[in-house]
Amino acid sequence: MPDSQPQPHGGTPPDSTALLLCGARLTDGRTVDVRLGGGRIEAVGTAGSLPPHPVRLDLSGHLLLPAPAEPHLHGDTALSADTPGPVSYAPADIQRRATEAALLQLGHGATALRCHVRVGDVAGLGALEAVLQARRALGGLAELTPVAVPRLLTGAAGADGVAMLRDAMKMGAGVVGGCPDTDPDPTGYAETVLDIAAEYGCAVDLHTHGDDPARLARLAAMAGGLRPGVALGPCAGLAALPRDVAARTADRLAAAGVGVVSLPQGGCSGVEHRGNAPVRLLRAAGVRVAAGSGALRDTVCNPVGRGDPLEAAYLLASQSGMRPSDAYGCVAGGARELMGLPEVRVEAGFPAELLAVRGERLSGALSLAYSRIVIHRGRVVARTSAVREYCDSAAAVALELPRQGRPDTGPPQPGVSRGA
Question: In the prediction, which pLDDT does 346 show?
Answer without folding.
Answer: 98
